[in-house]
Design brief:
Helix content: over 70%
Number of helices: 19
Radius of gyration: 21 Å
Order of helices and strands: HHHHHHHHHHHHHHHHHHH
Largest sheet: none
Oligomer: single chain
Number of strands: 0
Length: about 400
């Protein structure tokens, strides 16, 4: 698949391991690290929500900045702000205020997200885009195999010193990656044209173009359904990333050093599916596969909330089912979203999509923290409900398209 990918998509993908590998080592422990430095579950939820609320603003301006600065410049400058600076703060964090300030810096990630997304797909043929996202997922899967290295560091140094080391490595790796990727990519044709056009825009023209884009989205019911599925999916991811590790350590009584095996188990399951199952899947049945993926996610969470403390085998089963659901649904969802957006309006439309996502999921941190303090299983029940909503929306979309074809 990678041989078919050329140009900016290739330049973006080839350096992605420099982000994924160190991130996979530390992400399992991020919230546990905060917890051990004295940040409570509710404060963790508050930090998550503040970061997401800030991202509403940065998402709104991301399309304008990506068009105005060009994809490559916006990507480089705001990656350094949102990731390199934030990673440095995380490495030296002492209390709640450090993590809050890191969340503010990290909230600017929505600008490079939009710029990177445009670089990744604008010069890539529509038929190749699902392959691009599948390769991206494969890189993430392989990165997950390195998560136990984080566990070894935690076992050797204890959690807080190990996390400081991992965040420092993360900061250096990211900074090198950003400059190398900038060298390996070029501005897209659409990016060059948009930069020239936006140079003559005033604030009134910019706001009017956003209003027109919002009207275009709202008038397209099929696009709204696709965006609804995307929003629901991101809500699930946010809750899981925030509370899964804490749940494993606190509620299921699994040791800090041991929880790093679960990302590796997830990666192994994904790799097996990529080689044995994914090649047999047909592109024209993508929507049905997404429903199966969401269904597997539901089963995995039911097992997770039903398992008794210390039952690692059932947690591994849950992890493998979640991995299967993700590998089946995620690349197709990303491709469906990418293909639903017009290239001429991609930067603005994707930034508005991010705003819609964040408006809906920004309370998830506070809701998750509040529900977790009532019962640690409640955030995962919310994930189940959200997955059911995704399935219902996908069925609506399939019926709508069937009527259009008929």
């Amino acid at each position: 698949m990678f041989k078919k990918i050329q140009g900016n998509a290739r330049g973006c993908l080839i350096y992605e391991p420099m982000f994924i590998l160190p991130y996979s080592m530390l992400t399992t422990y991020a919230t546990v690290y905060m917890f051990q430095l004295g940040v409570s579950e509710r404060q963790i939820g508050f930090i998550t929500s503040v970061g997401l609320i800030m991202q509403i603003f940065t998402s709104f301006i991301s399309g304008y900045l990506t068009d105005r600065m060009g994809r490559r410049r916006a990507l480089l400058y705001y990656d350094l702000i949102s990731w390199s600076a934030a990673a440095l703060i995380w490495a030296v964090s002492q209390n709640f205020w450090y993590f809050l300030s890191a969340a503010v810096f990290n909230s600017f990630l929505r600008v490079p997200n939009t710029a990177w997304y445009c670089l990744l797909v604008e010069d890539t043929a529509q038929n190749d885009r699902s392959n691009v996202f599948r390769i991206l997922q494969l890189i993430g899967v392989i990165g997950g195999l390195f998560a136990p290295l984080g566990g070894l560091l935690v076992n050797h140094f204890t959690l807080i010193p190990a996390m400081r080391i991992m965040y420092a490595i993360f900061c250096v790796s990211l900074t090198v990656m950003f400059f190398a990727r900038n060298f390996a990519t070029h501005e897209t044709e659409i990016g060059i044209r948009k930069r020239k056009e936006s140079a003559s825009y005033n604030l009134k023209d910019t706001l009017q173009s956003y209003i027109d884009t919002v009207k275009t989205i709202l008038s397209n019911r099929a696009l709204m359904i696709v965006f609804g599925v995307y929003i629901s999916f991101n809500f699930q991811v946010t809750l899981q990333n925030t509370y899964l590790s804490i749940y494993l350590v606190e509620a299921l009584d699994i040791s800090d050093a041991l929880i790093s095996i679960f990302p590796a188990v997830s990666s192994l399951a994904m790799l097996a599916l990529m080689f044995l199952v994914v090649p047999r899947l047909k592109e024209n049945k993508a929507q049905g596969y997404m429903i199966w993926g969401f269904s597997l996610a539901i089963v995995s969470k039911i097992i997770l909330i039903a398992v008794a403390p210390g039952q690692i085998t059932l947690v591994i089963v849950s992890t493998m089912l979640a991995a299967a659901g993700s590998i089946i649904s995620s690349p197709y969802l990303e491709a469906v979203v990418a293909n639903s957006i017009d290239d001429e309006q991609r930067a603005k439309m994707f930034s508005i999509l991010q705003v819609l996502v964040l408006l809906c999921i920004s309370p998830s941190g506070i809701i998750g923290g509040w529900t977790y303090t009532i019962d640690p299983r409640l955030p995962f029940i919310l994930i189940i409900i959200s997955s059911v909503v995704s399935i219902v929306l996908m069925i609506m979309l399939m019926r709508r398209e069937a009527k259009t074809i008929g």
